[in-house]
Amino acid sequence: MSDERAKLVRRFTAQRGCDTMLSGIRPASVREQLAVIGKTAAEDAVPDFYGEGGPVEELEGRVAGLLGTEAAVFFPTGTMAQQIALRYGAELTGRDGVGLHPLSHPVLHERDAHVLLAGLRTVRTTDAPRNPIAAEVAALDEPIGTLMLELPLRDAGFVLPEWDELTAVVTAARERGARVHLDGARLWESTVHLAHPLAAVAALADSTYVSFYKSLNGHSGAALAGDAELVRYARAWRHRHGGNLFQQWPAALAALAGLTHELPRLPRYVAHAKVVAAALATLPGARVYPERPHTHQFRLWLPHPADALNEAALALAEEEQAWFVGGWRDTEVPGVALAEVTVAGPALELDADQVVGLADRFLRRLPR
Ligand SMILES: Cc1ncc(COP(=O)(O)O)c(C=O)c1O
């Protein structure tokens, strides 16, 4: 087993043994995941055939219904779905520039796929750690076929615009003749801060991508939603990209389970994240951002090296069956590390005092 794999297995095992959890959820075993799929499948469900019919079609219909779009198409990954949405924008407008944030997923995490595979160019929208505002889009000095907005912008701290800012930046894009695509990997929980339902948000855009395995706890997979023409095009290019799997019903069933059970719970997580963030901000030397989180996720900094924090989290889990926060990484400030906190089901059981109590037990494990 590689070192990386061994670390993952150690963390998985430690988290499964915990009866208290602040960040994230207790990870499910393969058998537990199979049980969820089994319970979700209708008695007479028939598998899909290359994505046609079965739970995949049911899922596509459910997503189109939630987002209020004409159609939706299932994708094995969001990476693939978004390249196709952006390529479509370039074909329709004749412009290969895509308005992207330097912290967006395609720019940071996809090895230049949109450039190398779809022949697109990045036009940086803003260097500010938030989605671009209308004035920035109006001032771009290059044409763009599509403006992509990431709701929330994960690598800036899961930050969302205000509703008026969002509608204004969409208008600014349209005035430049650009289409609008939403990276909605975490759109499900964004409706609370935006104070508008999913369909109202998606109605602002020409295409919206949503993910099934982040806040919804599915296996994998994504959907691209928009008008029927976009979805027809996306199905053709999904095939070209090698994304037409023979059967995708396991991922679709896990996604359907997430929509039924987890989606309605997200607003409670978002509300509780404000309580958790305020409690964590009182720790010695801690910073949280946003101070009032926009979703159920936010960033936490502590004045310790990442290795020590990761080791303390594992030791606390293994010895006291309590999970604090993991995934620490060092920042450019020496001795200060950063982690993303996810307030989900298990954290609802912890009030502010219990959060601080758990944090104290965690901090006591750090070398002095
Ligand atoms: C904001 C955002 N966009 C796109 C993706 C891509 O999703 P996938 O892993 O399904 O390719 C991710 C995945 O982490 C993401 O966080």
UniProtKB/TrEMBL annotation:
One of its GO terms (molecular function) is L-allo-threonine aldolase activity. One of its GO terms (cellular component) is cytosol. InterPro entries: ArAA_b-elim_lyase/Thr_aldolase (IPR001597), PyrdxlP-dep_Trfase (IPR015424), PyrdxlP-dep_Trfase_major (IPR015421), PyrdxlP-dep_Trfase_small (IPR015422). Keywords: Pyridoxal phosphate. GO terms for biological process: glycine biosynthetic process; L-threonine catabolic process. The keyword Repeat does not apply. Residues 48-296 form the Aromatic amino acid beta-eliminating lyase/threonine aldolase domain. Signal peptide: none annotated. The keyword Cell membrane does not apply. Its cofactor is pyridoxal 5'-phosphate. PANTHER family: L-THREONINE ALDOLASE, L-THREONINE ALDOLASE-RELATED. Belongs to the threonine aldolase family. This is L-threonine aldolase.
